Amino acid sequence: MSINAGFHKLKIAEVRRETPDAVSIRFEIPEPLKQVFAFRAGQHLTLRTDLDGEDVRRNYSVCVAPSENEIRIAIKQMIPGRFSAWANANLREGQVVDVLPAMGRFVAPENTRDHAYYVALAGGSGITPVISILKTVLETQPTARCVLLYGNRNTASVMFLEELAGLKNRYMDRLELYHFLEDEAEEIELFNGRLDRQKCEAVFDSLVDVKSADAVFICGPGPMMDAAEAALLARGVPADRILIERFTSSVLSAEQLAAREALQQKAAGTELLVTLDGRRSRVAFDPARGNILESVQAAGLPAPYACKGGVCTTCRAKILEGQVTMAKNYGLTDEEVAAGYVLTCQSLPATDRVVLSYDE
Ligand code: FES
Q1: In the chain, what are the helix, strand and coil shares in percent, each to the nearest 5?
Q2: Most Cβ neighbours (<10 Å): which of 107, 113, 185, 277?
Q3: What number is the average pLDDT over the span 20-47?
Q4: Of 289, 308, 348, which is best to mutate to test ligand 1, by the most ligand atoms within 8 angstroms of its C-beta?
């Protein structure tokens, strides 16, 4: 079995420039794969390519609603951004790309109350899953109201500027849209500057009643998400109403790294009994590989992964026997952790024997 298990080769139907440093990409989905690539608003796809002989994978959110009958993602060129720079410069209509079906729990709520109220905070390309969610909620929940707070450097860098204005026109009474620009001065001071903690507090004081929100969606740069989350929690918004979509994870401190290295050494040779695609294999944990996922892959098993940063949950497995320690977890819910699920890219064995399954 190839290491590309789960990936499908999809042809690019259209590459559309959204801003000077971002493109959106529409894929052609052949009829037999329509069901496989069904998605919920807010989910992401994983793309992979070989760059200088290295298998590089990244997650990109879908920016359309399921009702639009197309699947389109947006890729903004990041700095540094190996994959995003390659994609912005090279992807063309007709090219074929390896793509994993949609995943993710940052999704539009279903079966909610009448007159539900949603708040979204987006920064830069963080608008991608958010616009998918807003379009879906406004369309499928006729009494729902939404507020979008969207931060960018300047007008030229605002992704989906016209589409958002169109949404605002279409749902005049149900969508409030506020842009915050760092490098351009607005007449109203509140809309100048970035969405940091102070700005969030000012906005929540004067513009948005976050305490009555049924859900708050946050996606953007790390500091923005941390600031928004802290401001919401400080105002008593329950944590389970705050949904955050991260695409990168924080770096471990020197102390955390040293502690982790000690655990890796201690776990050397631990027996891992791994079930993947219905087959059970025996793997010895290799401290030089750093985590369970890498040891499993080094043994030739095509365990799934994308970010390797504790964010995307692609590498999720269930511990059936024994214990592991996880370094970072931005993706699994408390319920999943309680049920025994772990992110194998973040896990080290903590017992002499660990039995786990990628199939559960
Ligand atoms: S590969 Fe993304 S969380 Fe492990």
Answers
A1: 30, 30, 40
A2: 107
A3: 95
A4: 308
